[in-house]
Structures are given as structure tokens and as C-alpha cells.
Amino acid sequence: MQFHTLSNGFRILTENMAGLKSASIGVWVDVGTRNETAAQNGIAHFLEHMAFKGTKRRSSLDIAESIENVGGFLNAYTSRETTAYYARVLQNDVPLALDVLADILRNSTFEPREIEIERGVIIQEIGQSLDTPDDVVFDWLQEVAYPDQPMGRSILGPAELVQAFNRSDLSGFVAQNYGPENLILSAAGAVDHDKIVAQAEALFGDMPKSKPDSLISASFTGGERREIKQLEQAHFTLAFEAPNYSGQEIYAAQVYALILGGGMSSRLFQEIREKRGLCYSIFASVAPSVDTGMFSIYSGTSGDQVSELAGLTISEIRRSADTISEAEVERARVQMKAGMLMGLESPSARAERMARAMTIWGKVPTLEETVAKIEAVNVTAVRGFASELCGRNSAAMALYGPVDAAPELPELLAALSA
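RESULT FIELD:
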């Protein structure tokens, strides 16, 4: 891995992967949904869409064809903390990909006609999400975990706000948030560091320095949202505050999530699906961010079984605090290491890892450092995290579907601490 910072604060990371004939290159912007005001909710995602709708040099078709004509692909995504624009191309087309990325980031025209077209596309995307119960219930879970906070808002935003965004709103958000200090160029695969730095200097070096806004801290509060609707399944989600990215505690939380609900051998899968047949899927996961984190459990079941499923989930959390074994911890550690290392055989995953690490820690830990932190997780640490969950007096719960018989959140918390 090689690293360089331009004089204006624009950061460049590259990693050459021997033997590859292709590369992944992208620009990660340290801006997402949680950087929006309440009135701007959804604008970061809207802006991501508009980046592909035309620049001073290229039409939307030109943008698509420039990459697809050489057999590559171009895409983007928005999360609560990051917006990413990236391409995958063959080795000789890396300069072209970087030129296109710089063009869409710096020269988008936000033509009113294109805004109206894309507004319709995003409204359809919102509608599709609302028709997908396991999408909706996780948005609600985030909302009740972080009420009235940027961290709790949906990435797509509400339709009524999306309907109102205009050219001035979009260009203002870019001017406010897309300064060079917030941009990270990351490339992996068949890449030449010096050539990328030289081209980046030409494309981004003249950007004036800016002062990024301070991030509004997130505070996990918790609460419940229950929407009763006649669906085929009752969708159940439960969440607790978890560690953020800093510190060793996040690794214990991730190991615990794998033990509790990380695969077919996990406790929840074996107890609730395999032994009792109460659901098709059930899983636990940890989503850390820069200053908070969320440990969540999800399952879908029938309305008449959701109460039993919720009760068994609480019982398994309680039981795990005293009974997690060294064998379970070792299996989870191996799963974490294998998943990370297998994933990093892809240049796209390598580029993503470098950019996100730089955003979070201001540096990129070596794989050896990360593996060592995973290896350092022991039974005591994992049981300790489970015990902490059992002692919590706040949690977030979202339910959707035939959930009128599901227990209330205070009842589950009382059972957890009993």
C-alpha cells in the first residue's frame, strides 16, 4: 500500500496486486446521510444519482459509454457516513476511469430536466423500498435507535423532501461537503502509484481547501416501532448499542454476533430454525460507525410464532453470557479471518478497505494488525459483551406485519435482565 496527500488535503491510496490485469479505482467522500440537516434528508443519495446525469464535457450516455466501451463498469453508493464513486476497468484504462470520476465529481451540470428525470427514478426507488418489508423494518430500527438524529434518518429520504430538491440545493451540498479534505482516491489491482498521483494532481490539485463541518454526535436512545399489516411474515428486529470502530471491543462484539447468529452453526439458527422450525432466516450483525455502533438481530416468522421467537432470542442471549465456549470463539475468529482474507482477493474490496480505514482511523492497518486483533478476542471478552447486553436498560425494536401478538420492548428487556 502506498499513500500520498496533495497540498490541498486530497488523499491518494494505491495497492498493486501482482498478477492482475484489471483495477478498481474510486473516490470515497467522507459524507453521507448523517451529514444532512433534517430538511436535506435524502440529498446525499440524490447527488450520487445526479453525478451520472451529465457534465460540462460528457452527456449521461457519454459517461456510460466511456467506461462500457472498454468493458468496464461504473457505479456508486451512499451510506450513512460515506458516498463512493468507483469503476472497475482493465489495466490500460485506469487513466480513463480516473478522468471520468474526476469529471462527474467536479463538473456535473445538474441540468433541471435531468433533475426531474432522476427525481422520478428516486421516487420509484423509495416506493420499491417501501414494498420490501425487510428494508422498511431496518430503516425503522435505525430511526428508533437514534430518534431525531441524522444517524437515524433513512438514506433515501422521504418522498416529500426528494420532490422539493432543486439545482441550488444540490450544488450547495457539493460546495459544503465535497472539499478536497473530504475526498479519498483509492485504487487497487494493476495500478501504478506514481502515475495515479500525477494524474490526480492534474485533476484535483487545484481544488481550494475547505473546512469540513463538524459531525453531529450520535446517541443511541432506543425505543419501539410496531406497524401491524397483513403480510405473509412478521418481521422482527431487535438492536442494542455496540462499540464504535475504535478500540478492541468491536472485535469481541463481531465475534459474538457470529456465535449468536452469524451462520448455520450459530446458536440462533440452530435453536430457532433447525430445532424448532420457527423461521427461514435469522441472523445477528454488528454495524459500527465512527462514534457509535449497533448490534442487531433480525428474523421473519409467522404472526402466531413471533412471540415465541422473540422470547427464545432473549433466552439465547442470556444463556450465551455464561455458556459460550472456546470452540465457538475459535470458530468465529476463523470465520472472521477467512471472510476478510477471501474478500480481499478482489481489487474492489481492497480499494474499499483502504478508503474506509483512512476515513475512520486516518491510516490503513496492515492485514497482520487486523488479524492480531481478531486473534486477541477470548472467551472472557465475548462473554463480557453478552453480559453487557443482558444488563442494558435500553434497546431498539421494530416490527412489521402481523405483529399484534409480539411482546412489548419493556417486557423483553425485563426478561433479558431477569
